[in-house]
Amino acid sequence: MKRTISGLSAAAMLLLGTSLGAQADTIKVGVVAPFSGPFALYGKQFQEAIQVYQAEHGTTAGEHEIEFIYKDSGGPNPDQARSLTQELLIKDRVDYLAGYVFTPNAMAVAPLLDQSETPLVIFNAATSAINAQSDYYLRTSYTLWQVSMPMAEWAYDQGIRSVVTAVSDYGPGIDAENAFVAAFQEAGGEIKDSIRMPMSTTDFTPFIQSIRDQAPDALFTFLPGGPPTFGFTKTYNENGLRDEGIMFLGTAETEESNLQAFGDAAIGLTTAYHYSADHDSDLNRAFIAKNTEMHPDSVTNWATIGAYDGTHLIYEMVEAAGTDGPAAIEAAKGLEWESPRGPLVMDPETRTVVQNVYIREVERDEESGLLVNREKGVIATVGDLGWGK
Amino acid sequence: MTRLMRIPFAVEALLIALLVIAFFAFPYNLAFVTRILIMVLFVLSIDLVLGFAGIATLGQAALYGTGAYAAGLFAVHVTAAPLPGLLIGMVAGAALAFLSGLVLLRTKGLTLIMLTIAVAQICQEVANKARDVTGGADGLRGIRMEPVLGLFEFDFIGITAYWYVAIVVFIVFLALKRLAAAPLGLSLRGIHESPERMLAIGAPVYRRQVLAYTLGGGIAGIAGALAAQVTQLVSLEVYSFTLSAEALIMLILGGTGRLWGAIVGVVLFMTVHHVAASADPYNWLFFIGFMVLGVVFFLPGGMIRLPQALLRLGRQR
């Protein structure tokens, strides 16, 4: 039994090996992302970004034709993500992997990457610990530490001395809280209270009231997108925290796909983040124009840019190394390029992009009449500050 | 089907044949076929609880998830040998089923359904809060399994994982088949039909139900443990309501109260899901919806009744 099995797996491996050599003219990239269910927007945006990149740069890199294969992972579901990835590697024989919205989905494929020596470009999942699981992870999104720590340092520089943190009680929320608290205390500020709000909270009044009673200079929050964010900011305004001078500090809360739905309640909210669709550069304007032209209903936001830069990285790796996974990773390390979000460097150690973090304030744009994240300050070239924590 | 049952070992032979055929027919989809088998095991556990003993549950994921976390933590902290991990998963699932069953089974109907959901939700919240132990929303990682029995290494293609899971599912299926024919199985069916009558003839209904629920918990625990060992990661989703509900849909699709119903339902649901989702990643849920509607309307007994329904249709002509 054992001999037949090992013989079979050897044959399958051989098949895999020869196919890699024979198919050098077309290189396949497997994209694992949610295309159905409540998180389907991510998959749609990833696909749109890839299409925009292909429209601009063609479908060949070096001497290789590049083809993308999409697989629907649904929501956070590591079993599904792993078996889809296995199928992409074994059946579709992809040489690169990309996408991955949720941390557990990305984590579950680490052993597969090591065994098959396949580079994986994370378009979204934002937990620092992922990249430590395998040398084949690369990330073109951001990590929560990367944006939360600069927020804390900037706040202290602005004269804010006391903060209450209020985050949703789940992985990313706790990450954001830890990062902010560490950086703010390091700078010399005081954390008056750290509140963790249950995920399913709809009425934020008790939390907001408690923050108001403690009268800090600012509150720092992290909430999952959609209804919780609306509820929290609405309660923030209604309870007069803004009038009392308690500043709102956040990260992804005002991202573009939610922003217009806030209405005037959002004006003045301050966030630290790596991408604003309002970023003032020709490259960004051209990128958004192209995306809007190809997909009129689409809103360009951080998910779009993460996938766009990720696609660029894959093109660069294919051109430098073809189907050779370890060589592709080496080629990616230290790679520098100008993205619509600003200058990027692929950090050789953490394999997460080093990028600018922008301090933005929500304003109503005079020309378009739409709400925008206007950049007020830049904290240049921030790496993954959560590495090894 | 009934005629087939009379031939000795026909069912066993058929199952083995199916497992061998699946292995050679889908050499590139072994990971997916393995997931189907794990799901079959999980749905069998619901079949025992709901289809046989008539205990309405929408929280079977509590037992599956507990088995998964127990096996995962055991592999990380104690030993990475798969079989002891499987045992731990089973014991953990059965223990939770026994303890919660003592309370749950004093209720029935909607109250019972609500309480089973509540148990799964509580488990999920505990796993979320105990971040240092379970990894919270990031998932429990660091599970690296040793070879099965020290001989068969878990390989990249998933050959070992497939046979490992297939053999476990086969053994559990046979055990359940024996159980269904044994006095315990018959008395469970009786309880399903009419608890009052069973009480009247002196059967200890409550104790039998707790026993069935505990057995179901053990099987769900094995399924969870297998998932943890094969995926090498456990996430909070093992406790999700969606998992319990989807498994129940699969069971209804196949036919409740029949062991083959669980197999047919899972294979059908997951295959349609897989094919439709790769053909059209955006709209595949429509296909699933129509399929479920169709079965519920035209085959209330589940897909397992399809041959009989067709025969009846043929005779009417």
Brief characterization of the structure:
The complex is a heterodimer of chains A (389) and B (317). By secondary structure, chain A is α/β, with parallel strands linked by helices. Helices cover 42% and strands 23% of the residues of chain A.
Rg of chain B to the nearest angstrom?
20 Å
Give the CA-based shape of chain B.
Answer: globular
Main beta sheet strand tally, sense and closure of chain B: none
Average of per-residue pLDDT values of chain B: 88
Tally the helices of chain A: 13
What quaternary form is this?
Answer: heterodimer
Number of β-strand runs of chain B: 0
Ends apart, CA distance between termini of chain A = 45 Å
Largest interface: A-B, 45 and 42 residues
InterPro entries (chain A): BCAA_transport, Leu-bd
Protein name (chain A): ABC transporter substrate-binding protein
Organism (chain A): Maritimibacter dapengensis
Domain Leucine-binding protein (chain A): 26-365
Keywords, separated by commas or semicolons:
heterodimer; A: 389 residues; alpha/beta; Rossmann fold; 9-stranded mixed beta sheet; 6-stranded mixed beta sheet; 13 helices; 42% helix; globular; disordered N terminus; B: 317 residues; mainly alpha; 15 helices
